[in-house]
Design goal:
By secondary structure, the chain is of the alpha/beta class. It is built from 6 helices and 8 strands; from the N terminus they run E-E-H-E-H-E-H-E-H-E-E-H-H-E. Helix 2 runs antiparallel to helix 5. The chain starts with a strand and ends with a strand. Bound molecules: zinc ion.
Length: about 240
Amino acid sequence: MSLDLPVPAVALAIGAHPDDVEFGCGATLAKWAKAGCVVHHLICTDGSKGSWDPSADVAELVVTRQAEQRAAARALGATGTCVFLGWPDGELESGLRQRWEVAYWIRRLQPAVVLGHDPWKRYRLHPDHRHAGLLTVEGIVAARDPHFFPEQALPHHRPDALLLFEADEPDHVEDVTGHVDAKLAALHSHTSQLLSTMHIDEDASPHEVQAQRQAFDDHIRTRLAAHGEREGVAQGEAFKLIAQL
Ligand SMILES: [Zn+2]
């Protein structure tokens, strides 16, 4: 187990859907942003399946989720950009076309650290998370070497480190003590996901909504405390660290 990377000048967090980055590494991004790191988001899909309401206006949902993602990034203190690749939710593939796009953004934004889903997490059900993880890994490989996608006409770029969240075999912890409130604020910014993802029913009584919010926050805090315990810190986010890129 290692603890705490040096604060990078630029970080790029890659998620399958709006909200994945906040769940996976929101507190780490908040910590780095506060220390002067430029934090960028790259979201692979349009989030158009993110509603339990069969009559939901899907086009409206896509716009809503982009606005929520930007609000979440602000709640983390992120000053970078939110890039939306816009692939249909639930249908993300890790093909050459998608890899081209991820490599393009890595070359353009030049992150020192890239963060993304662990594509090798066992028994993972959601294909988008697996494919977004593969795109993160394979996008780095393409971005770092000059003969991949030369038509991009951008300098190749090799990040210093890759942090995989939801890691199958975590071996690195970021101490996020003092940055959990920012993560929670960012998660709550994904208002359209309150019911389906956070089990907060805004149609319930104010008292019940308060209790549901508290239960969700407690669940997150408990998990971060468990990750932190591995390295003797109060709150931690756990990752697989790959530093040989
Ligand atoms: Zn997701």
